[in-house]
Specification:
- Chains A, B, C, D: This is HD domain-containing protein.
- Four copies of one chain form a homotetramer.
- Chain A contains 22 helices and nine strands.
- By secondary structure, chain A is α+β, with helices and mostly antiparallel strands.
- In chain A, the strands form three sheets. The first copy, chain A, has a four-stranded mixed beta sheet with strand order 3-4-7-8. The first copy, chain A, has a three-stranded antiparallel beta sheet with strand order 5-9-6. In chain A, strands 1-2 form a two-stranded antiparallel ribbon.
- In chain A, strand 3 and strand 4 form a beta hairpin.
- The interface between A and B is large, with 41 and 41 residues.
């Protein structure tokens, strides 16, 4: 039998707390899950440092990837199958792209990419197309199959319907992570009627559309997403941990470039520091490795690296105040900068502005930052209309970006009056900290 | 104000997926959570290798410890408070013991302890009594407070009622882990009406008792526990991962003792290998460190260490067959041992019998292995009766130990017919593997 | 002991699917639940005819009333107690008002009140103040206690804080029914984090306010409410059943006034027909009685009454089309009216426009229809701000009334071409019904 | 197209709180749901008087019937389809039998049948085979189709596999009611992993079997059932309401037979009283009708009927004490009987022994009361074994009948010392009531 059509003797079933069960019948999917590049996702948390705020959020990207696969499987096998707008030969491609879409994520992805100027999407492409176990499995399907999978994930694949299954404003990716992250954090947001949404999805040439009768379920989904962003993903305590993490990586890189002699040499990091990261280097990086180094670095001589690593490991995070980038506040920030230096606290590492920004939903504006496809409704008369034209609630919030800035600093150092008492008091007054 | 009575200005609340919220008002508890020994529990999974079977089971012992604390807090603050049999001065002691009862667990605790002959309970005692942040916080309450906390956890504390809150056949520890492990694995077992059980708990001199009216909820709890043991904790795939892990540690120790030169020196392991483990050594050990070494060891020269580490990281586990320790089967095992050697597969590492055994519930039999206190019911007339004398269901299963043996081996190696084809076929026939 | 302070020997606990348990310790509350006026609420469904759309919605107002009581109990006993802005002497009053607030509802309340021009709020007042078991219990607390309870429910009580617990835009009434109705219908809307909202409620002179930190939970609550209105409460199939019910009552009244001789005399209805309803008459009316008559009336001679009763009992409802009250559509409606008469289908009973309208949230506009108090947030600096000024989402939907009109008719009669074939075809064409 | 194969243009979906959605694609099923005999089930509660103990238990048999249908639909469409042991032509038969299996239930079925010596199973047969809307729909499928459906429900159908879907010790009936009754009462028992059980069901000639791998899920189901029986179905407060209901019907019958003149003539009951119940009479009986009479009878002259009806409507139930049918207790009962008469409280209506008894699970014992088929496991080697031979837990409870007797009486009357003070005190002493 052709490998692409090969079925397992007995269906494999994963117990999943979010979707109850994840079903695998295709030999290709089973083999992909068994590759070492996919198993590596077990060692990368789905929500990075969020577990320091919501202790339940310790779930990995492995979990999420299976979940996205399962949602796409249900769409194509239970809803699209036998519909003329759906080409059954895109089925396996869709499943593989869903399973592998996050394959290139690094440890604590957000900070990691920012500091080392890496892009997980590029690494996803490399893993799929390079000399890997994943590539070997995909190639057994067809010579050009890895390329197709990579294109779907890169959104360049010709059949936009397939692309839209995993990247639009209501795709399997988002539907899985909202529910999964809500489940593991335990927050009461993040719930919406996915079963209903799946049942009213219809394949159209350019994208998945949603039958009008499912509009309210979609409204609910959009509100869930909005709440999850501000309640979970942008939680200020998580951002504090993220700030510290970023500064650890910055410091290590700086020290390495300055010729500092590490007690624990950052072997795994050298290629990240010098900017020539091979796929093999990248794949060795996971959160266990990163935490191993942080533990070792708690004993380094460099006071800043040592302190930041200890803060991260032991959750001694920075505090924050609201910050609005007005002239007045920018002046205050510069003043604080000077005072921090006077107090012997390096502001480059200890005085950080962090911003978060989200667009709850948007209609399509080509060329703009958020280019994910908007949601389209299929009316009873066959007409297709963009969601915000039909939903009063969605229209009300559509295109309204919300941004939030905070200023982070180590309050404990500022409270320690054994040294620099006067300047620290000045700082505290400027930051409106209680006496 | 006395430190032991100090309350936080504003109650701290942790979002918890199992108990919804975990409430902290006591300064002592807040300070304990912030110690580095307690934060270390974030880097140790509650269920060790179970995540390789149930992918959701990635939660840490940090999670569980907060949960046990919260259950005891609800018992003492909502149920026991103002009852004459309860001494309010034991409140803080109970909370601290609940929070800290698992403090000494090592990474992948089960295998780790077995191979290195360590005992996490001893390390719990050392952390509480030794030179640690935890000890410093406890000592601020009273000079003898660390000792008391240690005694409660060691079950030697005079007030057995306090001890029974965290160690009996229905204690806060078990009630938390059953629910929590069910939640994160996603299995449908593990649910019982804890709220009901808490409401009918009553303090008595020697232990917590349960009002007769809660008997059915307790029966349900016992059945949940039974199911969780056989469905989750003793799952044969988890045991396979555990077998491999054990063998990795054995091999590394053996190599070290044999003078093998490691490419990645097992610095963190030396004291475990030589049996003189200081508290500082122990506390450095967490799962990130362990996984770091396993990754490095995938590149060692030693073929066995390398293979086992790769199996663990990439989830290429051993398969198993049922095994009953009869004469006949023991003979077969010896035969297999010989054949494995012939096939060039070292049976010491690749042919392993693993046994699991559980007692669903037991009345008290002093001196026997399972010494946890049995459950006592408080009848309406004030009489106290051991559970199995009242519950037909519990009586039916009481004291009935169930044991299960399995034989683990690497099926993939036995299938590889590039070498030793004939002997491998013999082995496969003996193991009843399909052709 | 004073009756108002009397506690039950043992707390009574009701198992409740929504709040898990409902706790009663006060003798007064226990006695009120045991009155026959309160037990009567078991024979009145919370959602009237909704069970014909959502089959799970068979729960009674008895359920909901206990739920509202429990929420207020949690607010006053767990959150407000010991706060200086809260007067403990208002506790029992608040609990009684919560429990009794819906006492005067009639069977299938909405239609019943409309047709007979009755007001359930007036009957609630009469039951509390009149010669009833409820009044007798309340009077045992204090001579003026029934009056106080009645005032809280009528919103005329001086202490507006107490009033706001059961009538504001975020009161115990709404919080219970949203969750309860979601639970019994099984829809996925209606969930919000009530536990969080309760914890951040604070008593202020004029009303309950919500701490700023709970704003997102409140946003979620408002969105839930919006979804429940349009997905459940205004569901067009439910409205169809409501239309038929209304027409049954209209017809029975009309027949009675026209001197028609009923086979089953509408004894229980006489006072409703003639407009002089005593409290005793009213209390005899429940849904069992109403359904009994409907069953009997299926055998009346009057074809319209007979048909409508049979439709209701056997769920042969009217179909509907969208209807916008434009000039054009009004003309069409008049045309349909004429054609229905020609077809021998009395349009007074068989051609009905029904409208629904809701305001998702509103700031306060005195004198306007929806006078429920808006929601106020308590900021960290002690300032109080109306919700829509702080929440972008709520501001976006605030004050935006949504209205929906539908035209109902018996499609089956129009399809029956055994008579009046031509005119029925005309009607169907006008209504855009498929051939 | 043949009616039996006709599909709805658009699948109909019912929102169900237990199974999330109930799916109907077959025209036959849709038409059956629309019959008046099926709609009548909306007016009969699934759990009779249980709502007086668990206020949430107000759900109807309509709900449950849809649920059983849905479970069978999932078994045959998702699990059995395409298996050779399954004959696809039995599909519609199975679905219809599942939907209609409870069609003949009367109001408050248990007491109603007992007093009037009726059998709901006989009426189910009559409705299916007689001159009804249900029969008309079934006959459109095939002339002998009603007979087949009736046979499946009567367990006389030749294909025992089909029978076992709705009547065995693990059938769709039980799986639905356990979950549904748990959901509506809100108890935490009644949960088990139905999805898992469905997935491991396999069709065999004589019955459904369960793959060995699902054994633990089945154990959990059996324990759930056990708990639901003793916690919910046999709850002593529910049995008290049942006792009163039975006595009302007895009294009304007795009065009617004695020539008593009713103010409200029991028209609907005449045929029940005289034992010649036609199908039409029976179908008119529902709980609305029954409650209507009870309300009227609260104003009858007969003191006993009046009192019992008022007790039922207003939940003034009997209290109970444990009762063991020993010689000693039987003597006590006779003594009480005499004393009740002396006290002017008719023991025939006011002193009642009620017994409950359940067998948690049983292997097959032909000819005995509980003849439902036992559960069989399908082992990996193809062997089929009765459950209790494989499961230690099930073996422990198998065949162990548990029985419970209680003695019910009106404590309020015994406390009223305005008359017969001395004899009432004697009674209270005999019953061990607190002074």
């Amino acid at each position: 039998m052709k490998y692409s059509h090969e079925k397992l003797m007995e269906e494999k079933v994963f117990k999943d707390p979010v979707h109850r069960y994840i079903h695998v019948r295709d030999r290709v999917i089973w083999d992909l899950i068994g590759t070492k590049e996919f198993q590596r996702l077990r060692r990368i948390k789905q929500l990075g440092t969020t577990y320091l705020t919501f202790h339940g959020a310790e779930h990995s990207r492995f979990n999420h990837s299976l979940g996205v696969y399962e949602i796409v499987r249900r769409i194509v096998d239970d809803v699209f199958v036998n519909r003329q707008e759906w080409k059954q030969e895109e089925r396996l491609l869709s499943l593989c792209a869903a399973l592998l879409h996050d394959l290139g994520h690094g440890p604590f992805s957000h900070s990691f990419e920012k500091v080392f100027n890496l892009d997980h999407e590029q690494f996803t492409q490399q893993i799929i197309l390079g000399d890997t176990e994943v590539n070997a499995v995909l190639k057994k399907v067809a010579e050009d199959f890895p390329k197709k999978v990579a294109e779907v994930i890169a959104k360049t694949y010709a059949n936009k319907l397939v692309v839209s299954l995993i990247s639009s404003q209501i795709d399997a990716d988002r539907m899985d992570y909202l529910q999964r992250d809500a489940y593991f954090t335990g927050v009461s947001y993040g719930h919406f009627d996915m079963e209903r949404i799946l049942r009213v999805m219809r394949p159209r040439e350019e994208q998945v559309v949603i039958k009008q009768s499912g509009m309210h379920a979609v409204e609910d989904y959009i509100m869930s997403r909005y709440q999850m962003y501000w309640q979970v993903y942008f939680h200020p305590v998580t951002r504090s941990a993220e700030v510290i993490l970023t500064k650890i990586l910055h410091r290590a890189k700086y020290l390495s470039e300055s010729g500092y002699t590490f007690a624990q040499e950052p072997v795994h990091f050298y290629s990240m520091f010098n900017g020539h990261v091979t796929l093999a280097d990248y794949l060795k990086m996971d959160e266990a490795v990163m935490l191993y180094y942080f533990q070792c670095w708690e004993n380094e001589e460099d006071a800043i690296l040592k302190d930041l690593c200890s803060r991260f490991a032991n959750r001694r995070l920075f505090k924050y105040v609201e910050f609005h980038p007005s002239n007045e506040q920018m002046n205050k920030l510069m003043e604080l900068n000077t005072l921090f230096k006077k107090a012997g606290i390096d502001p480059e590492y200890y005085l950080v502005v962090d911003s978060s920004s989200d667009l709850p939903y948007d209609f399509y504006r080509p060329g703009e930052e958020e280019e994910r496809l908007p949601i389209h409704l299929l009316k009873n008369n066959g007409e297709i209309r963009e969601l915000s034209r039909e939903s009063q609630i969605v229209d009300a919030i559509s295109g309204k970006r919300r941004t939030d800035h905070k200023l982070y600093f180590p309050e404990d150092l500022l409270r320690d009056e054994s040294t620099k008492k006067i300047v620290k008091r000045q700082i505290r007054r400027l930051l409106d900290l209680p006496e």
